[in-house]
Amino acid sequence: MNAPLRTPDVAELRAFCLAADLGSIGRAAVALRTSQPALSKRLRTLEDVAGVRLLERSRQGVKLTDAGRKLYPEARKLLDQADVISGLLG
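Structure (tokenized):
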């Protein structure tokens, strides 16, 4: 496997986890106060960085792929740590 061109950023991982948690890109976009097209683009960028599809999209919403299920717990840990750091700095 080739190394990614860059690492994912926190905003991409937050969007990914929220879409997975809510089962919907639209609901995640509302929660993040952004547009659905902007959030979809952010998620596609994350998938490009990962080199794999992370979410299965359908009219019923989104579900994690096998790769998404592997990434999710690690991303969640990182986001929890980012929240702790933000709390210490803010």
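The beta strands are 55-58, 61-64. The two ends are 39 Å apart (CA to CA).
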